[in-house]
Design goal:
heterodimer, A: Glutaconate Coenzyme A-transferase, B: 10-stranded mixed β-sheet
């Protein structure tokens, strides 16, 4: 993930059709915008606003060799490894969630060295996306210094594994002489982000926590939005202050109700806890066989997204929705 | 009032068999938080202790969550399983991006960083990344999350179980820096602000020597001796002659904790 040369970044942006045009398509059509070997950035954080429908479509389209980055990874990280979609994840924390303990699938793949989990601090992830969004090759920061997290990504640990590895570097501030850490920009080839609503052009309005999604959308060279609902452009224009991701960054819009299931979508549904427990149980004893069985049942066998949701179950869906909409109760 | 609570209040003072180790951690670390402070809290005991402090002596405590939440009041019985979910946002003053809330640490708007720990050493360095050699680990752990950023930029309280395998001479991997190799080594590494303030365990409260930056005992919990705490620590841990004993948890504090976490998500 060496920072893209500025001239290349500008060139790739120039080449995109950034006009105000309708770009609604299916999950399958949107999956064609991702190429094998791409750097894919995933919106949301942990079990919140994970664009699971798009991940589901990418697994079904048998994408390979993606480098995947996200602020914090939960069960989708397991899915990336177990499906063969990626063997290189860049994130700050990776496990299903603290109440389920350390991810056994993550352990199985990383401890046998079949996959990498490249660890940066959470703020470093944020500033790497922000540098990408700003069109600068790095940003300075004051954490990770003195730690072995820095050692692992600055050359004295496992990295740089290859020439494409962009290491963090300590630097002297040109004004004060202080020691700072320079973290390199991330400009993902494709970002996938799930939102509560957007219009057909890709103007997206987010409720609740935005995580790193606004910077990710600005940093990426292509953005696929999945959305609970496509609304009219008129509705967007009534509250332009609520628009967090602009149409000009967006290349595809896919309407997918419950597009984060079994994770959360703020104000609409909370995580599907029983399903998350079931997943943890399936991967507890033999993590790889358990993950394969899960993929078969929920990723490969369903005939469409509605079938996927049916397999998770109506009772789960209603429970998650009841808890999710409770955010607005006093 | 439950029968259990009645029994406890009749007894007056609580004995160690009346509470779990996690409940003790929650109560003792909540007491370290002051009204009016801004605390950056991790999930688990820190979250629980911060809410307990809000409901007792620190109603004006501002909690920050890594997900981008400023000043929430989390609802009893609806604890979030991470700091990045909608349950964290209840009655908050402000929601921002993850990057923005972490930058508040760097700018200096956070009084206390408060998190749990898996492994700690005599200089307060924390490991949550690898057990064994990082290049060939026995166990790959979940990693830093915001832990490194919080520990690098704020005065820290850490709450963790006191076991010999967790309190080691040198951590396998510094995920979140304490005082690194002691003395001035933290500042020399480019971390002039923050550092370890207190480590709260189920045996006592620990602090750090102002010069050497080595861990030392500040107070012991009721029924714990200096020999007990030394026996459960993997390095030489000084216990001053004038060491104090903490006040046991009160029935009120325990009742609040149990109401907050009825399913014992964090307090089993």
């Amino acid at each position: 993930m060496t920072p893209l040369a500025y001239s290349d970044l500008r060139q790739r942006t120039r080449e995109r059709d950034r006009s105000l045009r309708e770009k609604v398509m299916s999950l399958e059509e949107a999956a064609k915008l991702v190429s094998d070997g791409d750097h894919l950035a995933v919106g949301g954080c942990t079990a919140s606003r994970t664009p699971f429908a798009m991940i589901w479509a990418l697994v079904r389209a048998s994408k390979r060799d993606l480098t995947v980055s996200r602020s914090i990874m939960s069960t989708e990280g397991d899915i990336f490894y177990a499906s063969g979609l990626s063997t290189h994840l860049i994130t700050s924390w990776f496990s299903q969630g603290i109440v389920w303990g350390v991810s056994k699938v993550m352990r199985a793949y990383t401890e046998s060295k079949r996959a990498r989990f490249e660890e940066w601090s959470h703020m470093a992830m944020g500033l790497r996306y922000r540098a990408g969004a700003m069109g600068v090759p790095f940003l300075p920061m004051r954490s990770m210094l003195g730690s072995d997290v820095l050692g692992m990504v600055s050359g004295d640990g496992e990295g740089p594994a290859d020439a494409s590895f962009a290491a963090a570097k300590t630097m002297e501030c040109p004004f004060t002489g202080e020691t700072l850490l320079a973290v390199p920009a991330l400009n993902p080839d494709v970002a996938i982000i799930h939102v509560q609503r957007c219009d057909a052009y890709g103007n997206a309005q987010l409720d609740g926590l935005t995580f790193m999604d606004i910077d990710i959308a600005m940093a990426a060279n292509r953005v696929i939005l999945t959305t609970e609902r496509v609304v009219s452009n008129e509705q967007i224009r009534r509250h332009p202050d609520q628009t967090k991701i602009g149409f000009f960054t967006v290349d595809a819009v896919v309407e997918v109700p419950f597009g984060c299931a079994p994770h959360e979508c703020y104000g609409l549904y909370e995580p599907f806890y029983s399903h998350m427990d079931m997943y943890a149980e399936m991967t507890a004893r033999d993590p790889e066989a358990g993950a394969r069985a899960y993929l078969e049942r929920f990723y490969h066998e369903p005939k469409d997204w509605a079938d996927y949701l049916s397999r998770i179950g109506m009772a789960e869906l209603l429970d998650a929705q009841r808890r999710g909409s409770g955010i607005y109760d006093d | 009032m439950t029968i259990e609570a009645t029994r406890m209040s009749l007894a007056g003072t609580l004995a160690p068999q009346d509470y779990t180790a996690s409940e003790l951690l929650g109560v003792m670390s909540a007491r370290l938080l002051k009204d009016g402070q801004t605390v950056f809290a991790g999930v688990g005991i820190p979250l629980l202790a911060a809410i307990l402090a809000q409901k007792t002596h620190a109603p004006g405590l501002t909690i920050l969550f890594e997900g981008g939440v400023i000043g929430p009041f989390v609802e009893a019985g609806k604890l979030p399983p991470s700091t990045n979910e909608q349950r964290c946002t209840r009655r908050a003053n402000m929601l921002v991006s993850i990057t923005e809330v972490l930058l508040m640490l760097q700018r200096g708007y956070v009084d206390v960083g408060f998190m749990g720990g898996a492994q700690i050493d005599r200089y307060g360095n924390l490991n949550s990344s690898y057990i064994g050699d990082a290049r060939n680990p026995k166990i790959r752990l979940p990693g830093t999350g915001g832990g490194n950023d919080i520990a690098s930029l704020a005065d820290m309280i850490v709450a963790m179980k006191h076991e010999k395998r967790r309190f080691v001479e040198k951590v396998d991997f510094i995920t979140s820096p304490g005082f690194i190799n002691g003395g001035q080594t933290r500042a020399a590494a480019g971390l002039p602000a923050g550092g370890m303030f207190r480590v709260v365990t189920d045996l006592g409260i620990l602090g750090f020597d102002a010069e050497t930056r080595q861990m030392m005992v500040v107070a012991l919990h009721p029924g714990v001796t200096a020999a007990d705490i030394k026996a459960n620590t993997g390095f030489e841990l000084p216990v001053p002659a004038d060491v104090t004993t903490t006040e046991p948890p009160t029935p009120e504090e325990l009742a609040i904790l149990r109401e907050l976490d009825p399913e014992q998500l964090y307090t089993a």
